[in-house]
Amino acid sequence: MTDIIHAAERAAQLRHEIERHNHLYYIEAKPELSDVEFDRLLEQLIVLERQFPDLLTPDSPSQRVGGTITKEFQSVSHREPMLSLSNTYSLAEVAEFYNRVKKLLALEGVDGQEMVAELKFDGVAISLLYRDGLLVRGATRGDGVQGDDITANIKTIPTVPLKIDFPGDVEVRGEVFMRKEDFEQLNESRPEEDRFANPRNATAGALKLQDSAEVARRNMSFVAYYLKGIRDESTPHFRRLKLLEELGFSTGNHYLLCHDLQGISDYIAYWSEERWNLPYETDGVVLKLDAVTFWDKLGATAKSPRWAIAYKYPAQQARTVLNAVVFQVGRLGSITPVAELEPVLLAGSTVSRSTLHNFDEIERLGIMIHDRVIIEKSGEVIPKVISVVVEERPLDVQPIVLPLNCPECAAPLAKLEGEVSYYCPNEEACPAQIRGRLLHFASRNAMDIKSLGKALVDQLVTIKLVMDVGDLYLLQEPQLENLERMGRKSARNLVRALDESRAKSYERLLYALGIRHVGLATARELAQAYPSLALLTVAREEELATVPDIGSVVARSICDYFARPSSQHLLEKLRDAGLQLIASDATPQVNRNFEGLTVLFTGSLDRYTRQQASALVVERGGRVVESISKKSGLVVAGHEAGSKLDKALKFGVRVVSEAEFEGML
Ligand code: IVH
Predict the structure, then answer these.
(1) For 71, 127, 142, 364, which has the most beta carbons within 10 A of its beta carbon?
(2) Which atom of ligand 1 is nearest to the CA of 82?
(3) How far is the CA of 120 from the centre of ligand 1 (A)?
(4) Number of domains in the chain
(5) Of 84, 256, 312, which is best to mutate to test ligand 1, by the most ligand atoms within 8 angstroms of its C-beta?
(6) Where are the alpha helices (DSSP H) in 275-398?
(7) pLDDT tens across 474-492, in order?
C-alpha cells in the first residue's frame, strides 16, 4: 500500500515537471533541460505507470508518445458548426468588410469598432473539448457539421494541453500545422515518390494516421485562435486570446488589436515581408471583430461568419526564360522533365531550375523551349512554372520532345496504364537507377554512410565495381585506393563506415532497400508486424494490407519487390554480409510453435524458398536437418518429394503438406 502511495506521489511530481518543461520548450522557447534529460523524465514516468497501471491518467504526458491504433475514426457532431472564412486578395475588399461591420454596429448604437488582426496559419483546423479541465475530445472539421474523433492523435501534439485550469465545458479551436524545419525533416524520411508538396498536406496526412505513435513522430504544432463556452460571454476576442495563453495554449503571439483601417493595412503590409522569417507558413491575415457580443447579431452566410474575413497574400511570381529541358531518371526509373531557367530572383532566392513533373504537364502548359514563362512560389514550396506568356513567344521556339529512349542507358521507355509518367524499364542495369539506389541506401535516414557521396557512387557504377547495394560490402581497400580523389585514408574510412553500417537496425535496412512507397514510417510498421525479413518476404498482399497505415498500393509494391529474382539475390548478399535482417526485439513477437522439433524439408514448396522456410522454423525454436533419421520429428513434403518422403513414411515420421506447415506457423 505504501508503495503505491509513494508511486502516486512520484508520478504526480514527474507529470508536473514534464508538463512544465514541455511548456518551457515549446511555448516559451526557453528550454531548461537537454532532450536526453527530458526523455529520461518521461521514461521514468512510463516505467512507473507500467508498474502501477492504476496510476495512469488520461492527462498523463506519457500519452503523448502515442501507441493507440485506431481502425476507423468515429464520426462526431460539432457543438456549433465549424465555419470557414471568406477569402479575399484585395485590400479594397478588406476596407469594404471593415466599413460594412462599422455601419452595422452604428445601427446598434456602437461607435467605432476594434478588429483583432491575426496571422492565417496554413494547416488543418481542429476542435478541442475540455470538460472540467480535461481534454476529452479532439476532432477534425470534416464537413463543418460532423468531423472525425482523432483524440488519440491530437494528444501526441506537445502544444495541445492535456489539462487546463478551467471549470465546465469549453471548446478551443485552432490550427494544427508543421514548422518548416519539421516538414523538411519528414519529407527527407519519405521515398521521393511520396513526398508531401507542402506542410499543410503533410499535416492533413498525419492527422489521419491510424497509429498514434507514428503521429507523435511527425512533430506537429498547434495554435489556438478561438475560445467558446466561457461564462462571461461578453469577453472580447482579444482578451480570449490572452486567456488562451494563460491556460497554456500557444497563440503564435503575433495578433494585434487594430483601432482603425490604417492599423489593419499596416499589419497586412508588415507581415507580407516578415512572414518569410517565421518558422512556419502563413498565407494571409485573419481579421475578427473584437466585440464577441455582436458576433451572433452579425450572423453568418452558409459558409462563413460576417464578423471575420481572411486576406490572402498573392503568390510571389517572376518572369523568366525557359532555356532547355533535361530529362532526369529517378531511382525507380521514372523520367522527370526538368526546366532549366534563366536565373531569376524570387521571394528571396535565385531560381534556375524547376520540375515540370511529367509530359502531361508540358502539354497542359503548352510550353516550348525559349518561351517566356511565369514562375510562382506559393508559401515555401519549390517554385513551379505556372504559365507561358504566349503573346511574347519568340520566333526561335522549339518543341520539347519526349525521348523515346532512356537518356542514361538507351533502353526504350515505357508507360504504365493509368500513370502519367514514362519510365525506364531497365531496372537492373540502368546506371542512373543503380546510382539512385546506392545514394538512397547511403542517405542519412537509411544506412547513413557519409563517405559514400555522389562522386564516388558515379565512379563505382561507371567502372562496374558496384552494381547493387550488396556489392558495397565486398569492396576492399586496395580497390578503392586507386579511384580518383580517394587515396588510402578515404578508402579505409569508407570500408570502416560500411562495416559499421552492418549494425544498423532492421527497420532502417528495410527503408534503405528503396522499395517503392516504403518510407521510414512504413518501414517501422513493417518491422513491427514482420520482425524478420524471412517473414516479410513471404507475406501475402492481403495480409500486408492489414498492417496499420499500409494500403493496397503499398502492399502490392512490397510483394512485387520481393517476387523479383534480383531482390532475392540481393537479400542473399546482404545476409552473407551480416546485415540486420531481424528486428532487435523480434524474439518475443514470434511464437515458439516449433520448440524442440526437428524438421526436414523435401521437394519444392510453392510459397517459400528452402531458406525462408528454414528461417521460419528456426525463429520458432525448431531445428532444420538435411537427412532423415528415426528421430526426425516432422517432414514437410512439397512437390516432387522423392526418396526422403519414402524413407519418412517407412520410419513412421509425421509428414505434413505445405498447407499444414503454414497452419503450424
Ligand atoms: S478563425 C469561424 N483564425 O482558415 C472562423 N481561422 O479559411 C473560424 N485559419 O478553417 C476560423 N488561421 O483552418 C481562424 N487565425 C485564424 C486562422 C484560421 C488559419 C484557417 C482555419 C479555417 C480557415 C478558414
Answers:
(1) 127
(2) 2
(3) 7
(4) 6
(5) 84
(6) 295-298, 359-365
(7) 999 999 998 988 889 999 9
